Amino acid sequence: MGSDDRLAYPEDGENPRDLTVAPFAIDACAVSNAAFAEFVDATGYVTEAESFGWSFVFGGLLPEDFPPTRGVATAPWWRQIYEADWRHPEGPGSGIADRQDHPTVHVSFNDASAYCGWAGKRLPTEAEWEFAGRGGLAGKAFPWGDEREPGGEHRMNVWQGSFPNTNSVDDGYYGTCPVDEFPPNGYGLHNVTGNVWEWTDDWFESPPAPRTGRVQKGGSYLCHASYCRRYRVAARQGNEPDSSAGNLGFRCAAGVPATG
């Protein structure tokens, strides 16, 4: 796992390394809004974004007449939106009625872990996620090979155009897409790269820096080569366990009982 891509981010700790993982199972798709709603209906669970009263939303998804809100100093396209949560991805007035098959977003590591526990599963480790995400291809940038768009074919949902102002939507989507929208990789997993970042169970460590949050993998619909080439299988970033945003979801994994 990992990469020696010269255009990668040294501070991310993508260094190539050999690891062995025990047999495991992993879901073909990220958890959808419909699936997360079943969990909430069954348990009454309240996400951390709902408890905090706000979450981060990409400004380009907000209506033109949306009231001014505070942005992130180093990434002004991220806006603090009150009442943004998994049911209301872009805050008040938005909903998921037409996005039942899209990945649930605005879920923290803690929210994702709670869902996994209810479903009798767990979050994958980073090594498990990357092993599964590669689909049997060793050392390739993407789940299908090294070309981002082989033969001009879009294989994932990422930003098309000039970020953050112009998105041509050549891949068909401005925001999230259905969890099974693009062809699966060699192991049957959909949307491993692009669409939404996915939580893993590992702490983010990039020596000599101290660990900072939990590892997220896969990139999202906002990734663009001009500022974030983290739509590659080896890419990684860290985020605090209670953080949430409109491009952050998860998929579940599980151990496989020994046989024989």
Give an overview in words.
The chain has 260 residues and is of the alpha+beta class. Helix content is 14%, strand content 16%. The chain has 4 helices and 11 strands, in the order E-H-H-E-E-E-H-H-E-E-E-E-E-E-E. It has helices at 33-43, 48-52, 109-119, 126-134; strands at 24-26, 54-58, 71-72, 75-82, 161-162, 166-167, 197-203, 214-217, 237-239, 248-249, 253-255. It has a 4-stranded mixed beta sheet. A 3-stranded antiparallel beta sheet has the order 2-4-3. The chain has a two-stranded antiparallel sheet with strand order 1-11.
Q: How far is the N terminus from the C terminus? A: 29 Å
Q: How many distinct folded domains?
A: 1
Largest sheet: 4 strands, mixed
Low-confidence stretches: none
Principal-axes geometry comes out as: globular
**CATH homology superfamily:** paralog of FGE (formylglycine-generating enzyme)
Strand content: 15-25%
Strand order of the largest sheet: 9-8-7-10
**N to C succession of SSEs:** EHHEEEHHEEEEEEE
CATH arch. level architecture:
Alpha-Beta Complex
Q: Radius of gyration over alpha carbons?
A: 18 Å
* Broad CATH class: Alpha Beta
Helix content: 10-25%
Structural class: alpha+beta
* Oligomer type: single chain
Helices, by number, come to 4
- How confident is the prediction overall: mean pLDDT? 95
